[in-house]
Amino acid sequence: MERLNAMITGVGGYVPDDILTNADIEKLVDTSDEWITTRVGIKERRILRGDHLGLSYMGIRAVRQLLEKTATDPKEIEAVICATTTPDYFFPTAASVISYETGCVNALTFDLQAACSGFIYGLETASNYIRTGRYKKVILVAGDKMTSITDYTDRNTAPLFGDGCGALLLEPTTEAFGLMDSILRTEGSGLMHLIMKGGGSAYPSSHETVDQHLHAVYQDGKHVFKYAVSYMADVAAEIVERNGLTNEEIDWVVPHQANKRIIDAAGRRLGVPEEKIMINIHKYGNTSSGSIPLCLWEWEDRLKRGDNLILAAFGAGFVYGALYLKWAYDGKKT
Ligand SMILES: CC(C)(COP(=O)(O)OP(=O)(O)OC[C@H]1O[C@@H](n2cnc3c(N)ncnc32)[C@H](O)[C@@H]1OP(=O)(O)O)[C@@H](O)C(=O)NCCC(=O)NCCS
């Protein structure tokens, strides 16, 4: 049997209209536009406002756009995998909500949680469904409503996060396109350095957990930064080397967007100039699982068939990794 690869055949995306600027953050915590810009690289982020609007609100819009752009009948979709840390509910899954609202009634659905590495873990998982030969059309939705778990009284985390969601269609090919290689790893010593403690089975929701602000992201930024900066660059360099790519052969680097300084370090390590690095952190902040697919969505018109893309991410756990992707089509699907 011929070897099947999983190629991306379309990209959709959604970011909310409402903008939270650094000036807005300055009114909430003791910080400054200058500090946020120079230390993190964010100028503004999007925020999903409105009562009881969850991640699925954005996921539904990203998937509808994807189906329209690829002229796909939702009934043909066989799996919808949603990579998120902020599903609407503990259960049912965001994937089931999104599938229902987009007419993907014949799809198996589940959520996948790998924090800020959700997209790259999701792409490996979705690709494996395609590679079995049994699934022909799989949607990966990836995004987060990070503002729902951000403590706007904590200056260490208040400026960092934003909301957004991307969606991709994956289909089989026997040609050398799609996900070519992946390295996905876990460094469990990170547990207590980047965590939302409250609401799970270890610290079920109570008045106490609310009073202690345990339902928001806690991050020991300095510690996480040290790991993120070396692990993300190292794993990206490792996948490049393993696939015998020279730095000139890398067309695009698509890093998770947690801090511009981490992105710059990865670019330097790979010897790739900034114009080949997709960056959206300045306008969207850290959208967690959404950061990489939103880059692909925005850069779609510049991507060409055969382009070599290196994707890399690092997140809570710590879970991290890098993917090597060969892009399968020219320009933007409309
Ligand atoms: C969070 C992060 C931006 C903080 O930047 P940093 O340069 O490391 O800042 P530090 O935490 O060392 O703090 C430096 C100083 O700035 C202060 N500071 C923290 N947040 C601030 C803010 N919003 N405004 C102004 N000052 C702030 C700190 O209190 C500290 O002051 P001190 O030296 O008097 O104690 C950075 O550590 C980071 O990006 N970490 C990794 C994020 C990541 O990759 N996460 C994983 C994926 S989501």
Question: What does the model show?
Answer:
The chain is an alpha/beta fold. The protein folds into 2 domains: 5-176, 3-Layer(aba) Sandwich (Peroxisomal Thiolase, Chain A, domain 1); 180-326, Thiolase/Chalcone synthase (Peroxisomal Thiolase, Chain A, domain 1), CATH 3.40.47.10. The protein contains 10 helices and 13 strands. It has helices at 22-28, 33-39, 55-69, 94-102, 118-131, 207-211, 221-242, 260-270, 281-284, 291-299, and strands at residues 5-14, 19-21, 44-46, 79-83, 108-112, 138-145, 163-173, 178-186, 194-195, 218-219, 252-255, 308-315, 319-326. The strands form 4 sheets. The chain has a 5-stranded mixed β-sheet, with helices on both faces. The chain has a 4-stranded mixed β-sheet with strand order 8-13-12-11, sandwiched between helices. A two-stranded antiparallel sheet has the order 2-3. A hairpin with a 3-residue loop joins strand 12 (308-315) and strand 13 (319-326). Helix 3 crosses helix 4 and helix 7 packs parallel to helix 8. The longest helix is centred in the last third of the chain and has 22 residues, at 221-242. The radius of gyration is 19 Å and the shape is globular. The model has no long low-confidence stretch (mean pLDDT 97). The protein binds coenzyme A. Coenzyme A binds at residues 31, 35, 39-40, 116, 155-156, 159, 194, 221-222, 224-225, 228, 258-259, 262, 286, 314-315.
